[in-house]
Specification:
Radius of gyration of chain B: 26 Å
Radius of gyration of chain A: 48 Å
Strand content of chain A: 15-25%
Low-confidence stretches of chain A: none
Strand order of the largest sheet of chain B: 6-7-14-13-9-8-12
Mean pLDDT of chain B: 81
Oligomer: heterodimer
Helix content of chain A: 40-55%
Strand order of the largest sheet of chain A: 1-2-29-28-27
Distance between the termini of chain A: 122 Å
Largest sheet of chain B: 7 strands, mixed
Structural class of chain B: alpha/beta
Strand content of chain B: 5-15%
Mean pLDDT of chain A: 84
Shape of chain A: elongated
Distance between the termini of chain B: 49 Å
Chain lengths: ~850, ~625
């Protein structure tokens, strides 16, 4: 396996390897010379801005976008202002920062998306230099202006420009600078000669790197690691200082023996690296310096660009694309010459096994004796992940699979997941796709993001295949891709609305959780309202359709959809929108056709806008409700006059509603109110607001019989009711004579049992007895019982021969005291029962 | 009566989890406003809150002072105010007033509104209109379900009934859907869902949508079957006088959030006592479902047992006495205290209810239910009104009359209504309008009697495509069809047999053997048939969107059911009464099922009708 280590170079304890990733597909006439180059990390796209060949005022530069393998994705003539810097966002958009601080954003295919400005100060003083940086908060931009002031935006999607404080005593441009992300804040680190400053939001503080060699006069180049944890400084003395980014710790200092500042300097480290290093590039010279004294030197054939990655550095030249990285531990263990690591032995064992040699067993035994077979398999699987060459991957995986056979309890997932990951990685690394991700990067980036990147590149079939292969839940996987596809589809201007709608619905029919409203809203953004409406019809959740329909001013449709959704908040949203959009008449008419919306709106008006509700009823000619509205209002009114006038309005409305009953009742209420007021004025009794019956009661109880009589007649109070009231009132006053007189005045419409009852209630049994004789036979027993006359009750019951009544009397008898009576009743009952 | 082969009813799932979830979320929300703060609590959230978190818990999370929302200017010195309120316009407006008056006084405070159980758009709209939208932060406390007992869960939303059924405001439907979703995710997956009513259907849809959006976790179900019922399917049952003990206590003393306050007349001292009424009260749990006529004998038996237990002391040696004191005495004392309270309550109920008038009232109700001697009943109601016995009671009888008779004759309607207005005031014109809208108290359509209409509609409906027509028809004339339903479902047992209330033979015992509650009968029938097959005529008469999901064909299901399948959740949208719960418990015992009742609120005739008054 000598060929694997052929590209290895030792650096201290560790090895570094430079492997070719692609042979570039582009044909660059003059190489990368005189180009502004920006390559996105994680194997992202490359943008080139070529200066025109002839220096003439009319000549325009050419902007070109390529995949990492050099396949052209876009190319167009740059017609805007002078570009100072190019950069990529985390979502694969190209940022072009112009001299005047305007930032233009293009997508991967060179379509203009939007632009924004970096502020007035930048416009005035112009951009001297700009940097694009990535942090957990998104993509940021840092700019130094001609006045040597920094302006910074941490996230371009949520643009907040920050002007950093002035650096005291800074007369010229800093010799070098970099952006740091520390303590959830973006800061600028700059060097002016030997002085280092950190600029944060509020202050500029001077710092000194610990242990910088004394012969240094100036720091000429600096770089920060991918994770912002480490800092490297290159000095005019040719030393590279490496340390932590907080400048608290020094890692090492290496002499390069080159005094000219490197063209580019980047960190090259990997998570858990043995020998982190800094890679410096001069015209044709590449130098890797780590913690140890030695360095690795490479000669470059062409002009190149370094792209720092999470676990290495990519080197792009006009013909080649290479990856420089520290050899991962697992690979080193396995492939190092004469390695006796378990993985290496397993690989050897497998090779022998393929050759059908018994040596396979010897090797295996050796590993097994140390009980390191599990470890060996793990090493092989891990190493496979780090290898780019598919053959090498296969050899390693086969060896792992071979080793696995001798293990009973090795968890299968590790192996299976690695195979799956590699399959995906090999697919995206292919020349046509051109995303040279390493396994470490892929894990860091997550599959979700990878799918997104593929979608940005419009590689929909591949994205869907990967989703299906990885069994990503449909909602996050296939459906999401299809949604993007559909959003892209609706922008195809040459196709008709029908064709697109059909195509979309056919493709998306079986996908779960598709949001048609998003696709429709995209169509609307492209000015295709009709298509948007067509697409919305596919949206199963009517609630989702509403916001867009409103945006498209299809408010009626929006309202019915909102109601269909059953989400009242949504209905409210539409109602409020309509209320502001339409004139009142139309608004009410709309509501009228939508009872749900109407009742919601009423609910709101009831508390907030009483008058509106009246208008609503008016508009509908709903006189019944209007009547009720006035009645309700009248009870809130304290003053009698106002109350009466409201009630009058109610009467009118009820009449219009042909509700005679309500009209009459309300009319009577008005009469009653007037009557009560008159009496209050004359007699000083508190009557206002009482019901008719209560008024009568009060009148009778204070002996105002005349007005009571009058009310009784005027309001045609039923006789029964009046009698009840009268006798209760008289009994309450204990006016027994008057009660007797009243009893005799006419034949009682309620019978005479009530007389007995009211007397008993007042504990006047003797009075009660007076009326018993007049009680009808059916009620006699009850009457007797009421006054406690068991004998009489028994008598009456026996006379009536009613079994039920006899039992009732019996139930009131006590067996001890009323012996005789009980016997009599029992006898009577048995005789009645016989019949 | 218990059929052989049925196993004992499974025990209900542990619902205390719901309380823990609610408490944890509340604490989380309180901590979102760090520092000391005063908490204003909506009046009707006080009792539910008390069951979730006590004052100490609130204080632990830096609540300084507690106030009840009273819609008055506030006196608070705190710099942070937190409002725990229902999403009501009036309350939100009050909060806005508080903020605005602070602004006018140049005071700066932080305000946070926590809406329970969720925020509505209208709340934001009010805040915006009052110009305080930016000054307050809002949050929702998703406290949908309060377990009142091991088998009762209440949403504590009494306004659900009026707003949904009278005012046509459907915003609470989503809340019901959310509650179902919560239950489903904790105790599901439900394998069958039955429902009856428009609101039930909407709640189901709303839940299903949530269901589709969320991840499906496979777990062993605690609850297998769900039954959703709209209150407007059956108004008769809640309007009847309750005669089982728990129902009576609710009618007379008003049980609030599972606890009741017994006044001096019960405690026979000058203090009132608050008692939790649930299955943990050993005395109560034995009598709650009993017909009131049995309660006394139960209680006296209990008293005797207690006495015997006390009497054990005699003849004990010291050691035995020691164990007795340490182990049993406390329990006995506790039981003793509860026993005396319940005896007191029973006495107090007796005093009110065994009087002649109550018997007559019951008689009238029963004759209305049976449809005999209706004229006498009307005369009784008339007298009831003219004697002003009780505003709500009179109304209740009127409604029962209308519901059982499918509306009042126009002559009676006018006469009774005008008498009612004379007795209780003209403002009840509005009440009558509401009752009419609800279809609870209506005038008979002149000309056609119900049976004629019934047969006409019936013919139309035989053709399935005519479904829409029926819909239109039913909205035109809201009919209760009680008489026909009663016949079809045998709601009124034959009256010639003696009904022994001590040994109930069917659910009718909860109404002294006079009537089987319609709502519970429907549940029983559907479960028996495993769907609505065979009930077509009934559903047509109720005509309210029945549905069955996951029932898997018609016909009764053979074979043994799993425990989860025998735990049935019945959700009442618009409230249910303790009598209905008692009836379901009875049904559960008979069939070896466990019913869990979820309700928007516990209701009774009083609450139901008071909700329909307009002031």
């Amino acid at each position: 396996m000598a060929f694997v280590t052929a590209t290895w170079n030792p650096l201290g304890e560790a090895f570094y390897r430079k492997t070719e990733v692609y042979e570039m597909g582009w044909r660059l006439s003059s190489g990368l010379r005189d180009c502004l180059v920006a390559a996105a990390p994680y194997g992202g796209p490359i943008a080139l801005l070529k200066e025109p060949q002839r220096r003439s005022p009319s000549a325009r530069p050419q902007l070109e976008i390529y995949s990492s393998s050099g396949c052209s994705m876009a190319s167009f003539v740059w017609k805007s202002g002078v570009v100072k810097h190019l950069g990529w966002t985390v979502s694969d958009d190209l940022l072009c920062i112009q001299e005047d601080g305007t930032v233009l954003i293009y997508d991967l295919f060179g379509n203009f998306k939007r632009h924004f400005s970096m502020g007035n100060e930048v416009v005035q003083n112009q951009v001297l230099e700009a940097k694009v940086f990535h942090s957990p908060y998104g993509t940021g931009i840092a700019i130094i202006t001609g006045a040597f002031r920094f302006t910074l935006a941490t996230n371009i999607d949520d643009l907040k420009l920050r002007r950093l404080p002035e650096v005291p005593g800074l007369q010229g441009p800093p010799t070098c600078w970099a952006v740091l992300t520390q303590d959830r804040q973006s800061k600028v680190l700059l060097a002016s000669g030997l002085d280092l400053f950190i600029l944060d939001n509020t202050a500029c503080s001077a710092v000194t790197p610990p242990g910088l060699s004394p012969q240094v006069c100036s720091i000429v180049q600096m770089c920060v690691s991918f994770s912002y944890k480490y800092l490297a400084l290159f000095t005019d003395s040719g030393h590279v200082w490496m340390g932590s980014a907080n400048l608290k710790e020094k890692l090492s200092e290496v002499e390069t023996k080159v005094k000219t500042p490197p063209k580019q300097m980047v960190w090259c480290r990997r998570p858990k690296s043995h020998q982190p290093s800094v890679v410096m590039m001069w015209e044709r010279h590449l130098l890797v310096a780590g913690e140890c004294k030695e360095t690795i030197q490479y000669h470059l054939d062409e002009e190149s660009v370094l792209v720092p990655e999470l676990d290495g550095v990519r080197i792009i030249s006009s013909t080649h694309h290479e990856l420089l990285q520290e050899v991962p531990a697992a690979c080193e263990e396995i492939f190092k010459i004469a390695s006796m690591a378990p993985g290496a032995l397993l690989l050897e064992a497998h090779k022998e096994y393929e050759k059908e040699s018994q040596k396979a067993d010897e090797y295996l035994r050796e590993i097994k004796e140390q009980s390191l077979l599990g470890e060996a398999v793990r090493q092989c699987v891990e190493a496979a992940g780090h290898e780019h060459d598919i053959e090498t991957q296969k050899i390693l995986l086969r060896a792992a699979s071979f080793g696995k056979c001798f293990l009973s309890n090795f968890p299968a997932e590790y192996f299976v997941i690695m195979c799956r990951d590699l399959r995906v990685l090999n697919a995206v690394r292919s020349y046509t796709v051109g995303i040279p991700l390493t396994h470490t990067q892929y894990k860091q980036m997550t599959c979700q993001v990878l799918i997104d990147r593929l979608v940005y590149r419009k590689l929909y079939p591949l994205a869907i295949e990967i989703c299906r292969y990885l069994k990503t839940p449909e909602y996050q996987g296939v459906s999401r891709v299809l949604k993007h596809w559909a959003c892209c589809k609706v922008q195809q201007k040459e196709e008709s609305d029908e064709a697109i709608a059909r195509a979309v619905s056919v493709k998306l029919a079986e996908a779960a959780g598709i949001s048609y409203s998003e696709i429709a809203s995209k169509a609307y953004e492209c000015g295709r309202t009709e298509l948007a409406i067509k697409l919305l019809e596919f949206e199963p959740r009517s609630g989702e359709q509403v916001p867009l329909l409103l945006k498209m001013k299809r408010s009626q449709l929006a309202l019915s959809k909102a109601i269909e959704s059953g989400d009242t908040d949504l209905v409210y949203t539409v109602v409020t929108y309509l209320k502001n959009e339409m004139n009142r008449g139309d608004f009410f008419m709309t509501l009228r056709n939508q009872p749900v919306a109407l009742s919601l709106y009423r609910q709101f008006c009831k508390h907030q806008e009483q008058d509106t509700i009246k208008d609503l009823f008016n508009q509908d000619d709903d006189h019944q409700e209007l009547g009720s509205f006035y009645v309700k209002a009248s009870y809130k009114e304290k003053r009698l006059e106002a109350r009466l006038s409201l009630l009058q309005s109610a009467v009118d409305e009820y009449n219009k509603a042909k509700n005679e009953f309500a009209a009459k009742a309300t009319d009577e209420e008005m009469r009653l109110l007037r009557f009560q007021r008159r009496l209050e004025e004359e007699k000083g009794e508190q009557l206002l607001g009482l019901s008719l019956q209560d008024t009568l009661r009060v009148l009778l109880s204070v002996g105002l019989n005349k007005p009571a009589e009058q009310l009784y007649k005027d309001f045609r109070v039923p006789d029964k009711r009046y009698w009840w009231l009268k006798i209760t009132a008289l009994a309450d006053k204990e006016d027994w004579d008057e009660l007797e007189k009243f009893a005799k005045s006419k034949k009682s419409p309620i019978g005479y049992l009530p007389f007995v009852e009211v007397c008993v209630k007042k504990h006047n049994k003797s009075e009660a007895k007076k009326y018993i004789s007049r009680v009808t036979p059916e009620q006699k027993v009850k009457a007797h019982l009421a006054v406690g006359d068991l004998e009489g009750a028994a008598e009456a019951a026996i006379e009536r021969r009613s079994e039920a009544e006899i039992s009732m009397v019996l139930s009131r008898c006590l067996s001890t005291t009323d012996r005789g009576l009980v016997d009599r009743l029992n006898r009577a009952r048995s005789t009645t029962a016989k019949k | 009566m218990a059929q052989p082969g049925w196993r004992d009813a499974p025990s209900p799932p542990d619902f205390s989890l719901l309380k823990r979830l609610a408490r944890d979320q509340l604490i989380y929300l309180l901590e979102q406003l760090p520092g000391k703060k005063d908490l204003f609590i909506e009046g009707d959230l006080m009792s539910p809150l008390d069951r979730i978190a006590n004052v100490t818990t609130l204080k632990q999370h830096e609540v300084d002072k507690l106030y009840k929302v009273e819609h008055k200017p506030i006196v608070s010195t705190s710099d942070q105010l937190c409002f725990l309120i229902r999403p009501r316009v009036a309350t939100v407006k009050w909060v806005s007033d508080v903020v605005n008056s602070d602004k006018a006084a140049g005071r700066f405070r932080r305000y946070k509104i926590i809406f329970c159980p969720q925020k509505f758009y209208v709340c934001d709209a009010v805040l915006e209109e009052e110009g305080v939208y930016g000054d307050v932060t809002t949050d929702s406390w998703h406290f949908y379900l309060l377990p009142l007992d091991e088998d009762i869960i209440s949403m504590e939303l009494p306004e659900f009934f009026r707003e949904n059924f009278l005012e046509g405001d459907q915003r609470w439907v989503e809340t019901a859907g959310n509650a179902l979703h919560l239950l489903h995710s904790l105790y599901g997956p439900f394998s069958k869902v039955f429902g009856m009513g428009r609101c039930a259907k909407m709640a189901y849809e709303s839940w299903r949508e949530l269901q589709e959006e969320s991840e499906q976790k496979s777990r062993r179900a605690d609850i297998g079957t769900v039954f959703l019922v709209d209150r407007d399917v059956d108004y008769v049952t809640p309007l009847c006088s309750q005669v089982v003990y728990e129902g009576l206590v609710d009618d007379i003393f008003r049980i609030k959030c599972g606890s009741v306050e017994f006044g001096p007349e019960v405690t026979s001292s000058d203090k009132s006592v608050k008692v939790m009424l649930n299955s943990e009260d050993k005395v109560f749990s034995e009598i709650r479902n009993e017909h009131f006529s049995n309660v006394f004998s139960f209680l006296s038996q209990k008293a005797r047992n207690l006495q015997t237990a006390y009497d054990k002391r005699r003849g004990m040696d010291i050691q035995q006495m020691k164990t007795f004191v340490s182990e049993e005495l406390k329990g006995l004392k506790q039981e003793h205290r509860l026993l005396s309270l319940h005896i007191g309550a029973s006495e107090s109920i007796m005093k009110k209810k065994t009087k002649q008038d109550f018997q007559e009232l019951l008689k009238t109700e029963h004759s209305l239910l049976e449809g005999f001697e209706v004229r006498e009943a009307i005369a009784y109601i008339e007298e009831h009104i003219s004697r002003q016995v009780s505003m709500v009671e009179s109304l209740r009888l009127l409604c029962l009359l209308s519901l059982t008779e499918n509306g009042l004759l126009p002559k009676d309607y006018r006469a009774l209504k005008s008498q009612y207005l004379q007795s209780y005031g003209v403002e009840h014109l509005l009440t009558f309008a509401n009752l009419r809208q609800l279809g609870v108290l209506v005038e008979q359509q002149p000309g056609e009697t119900l049976t004629v209409m019934e047969s006409k509609v019936g013919k139309l409906v035989n053709d399935k495509t005519a479904g829409k027509l029926t819909d239109a028809f039913s909205s035109l004339a809201k009919k209760s069809n009680f008489r026909a339903l009663s016949k079809k479902l045998a709601l009124v047992p034959k009256s010639d047999e003696e009904y022994d209330l001590r040994v109930p033979k069917d659910m009718a015992y909860i109404f002294s053997g006079a009537y089987v509650p319609l709502s519970c009968r429907l549940v029983e029938q559907v479960l028996e048939r495993n769907g609505w097959t065979g009930l077509e005529e009934v559903t047509r008469m109720i005509n309210r969107h029945e549905f069955a999901v996951g029932a898997g064909g018609g016909g009764p299901e053979g074979g043994e059911k799993t425990d989860a399948q025998r735990v049935i959740l019945v959700m009442f949208l618009g409230g249910c009464t303790y009598s209905e719960i008692a009836a379901l418990r009875f049904l559960g015992r008979e069939r070896g099922l466990k019913f869990i009742v979820v309700t928007t609120a516990i209701t009774n005739s009083g609450r139901l009708l008071e909700a329909l008054l307009d002031h």
